[in-house]
Amino acid sequence: MSVRPIVLYPDPILKTPAAAVERIDAAVTELLTDLVDTMLAGPGSVGVAAPQIGVGLKVCVVDVSKSRNGKDNNHGRLLMVNPEIVARSGAATMREGCMSVPDYTGDVERATDITVRFESPEGRQEISASGFEAVAIQHEIDHLDGYLFLDRISSLKTGLFRRKNYK
Q1: 145 CB-near residues (< 8 Å, 6+ apart)
Q2: Domains of the chain with CATH codes
Q3: Residue 127 bridge partners (DSSP)
Q4: What biological-process terms (Gene Ontology) are attached (predicted)?
Q5: Is 75 annotated as a binding-site member?
Q6: Which of 39, 120, 141, 167 is a good FRET partner for 74, with 20 to 30 A between their CA atoms?
Q7: Across the strands, what pairs with 108?
Q8: How far is CA 7 from the centre of its chain?
């Protein structure tokens, strides 16, 4: 439908937990389409959550299939409504960026393997994800819970970096 403007930190919606979606109706389907369009328009974006476009609902999209880090291990485009991580294991630190915090990246420790349950236009789903896809899903679910990657950096002194190039 349309590319929506990205809300930038420190906008309060980014720190506010999103509300659960009661049912997937035409408005939620349109929101999912706008999220996909916005993700595809973003430089190097592999996901976007509804709060990042100013909508306080538990809706996000993830697609790492075109990323060099995720192209060999992914589920394709994930349209997630009310996602919930039900299992996690392993841990690794990876450099993360965010369209809502465009001037910085940071080293964040995340689970390397997760199981996530969510609703989609196709119905209720549960998938296991690993590697970069697992990281991207955790990052987007954090947005739905009112967290930014900045909140997950263990030391702002040694783990936060000014982005050199955002294209």
Answers
A1: 17, 18
A2: 12-162 (3.90.45.10)
A3: 116
A4: translation
A5: no
A6: 167
A7: 94
A8: 14
Exposure b/e, 24-58, CB count within 10 A at least 16 = b? beeebeebbebbbbbbeebeebbbbbbbbbebebb
| Secondary structure of residue 124 in the 3-state scheme | strand
Query: Is 140 part of the annotated catalytic residue set?
Result: yes
Q: Is the pTM of this model over 0.85?
A: yes
Tell whether 143 is in a known binding site: yes
> pLDDT averaged over consecutive 10-residue blocks of the chain (167 residues)?
95 98 98 98 95 98 96 97 98 96 96 98 97 98 98 89 74
Catalytic residue selected from 96, 119, 133, 140: 140
Nearest Cα residue to 148 out of 81, 98, 76: 98
147: exposed, middle or buried (C-beta count within 10 Å: 0-12, 13-18, 19+)? middle
Asked whether residue 139 is marked as a ligand-binding residue, the answer is yes
Name residues whose C-beta falls within 8 Å of residue 85's C-beta, 6 or more positions apart in sequence: 111, 114, 115, 116, 137, 138, 141
Q: Do 34 and 79 touch, CB atoms closer than 8 A? A: no
pLDDT, residue 70, reads 94
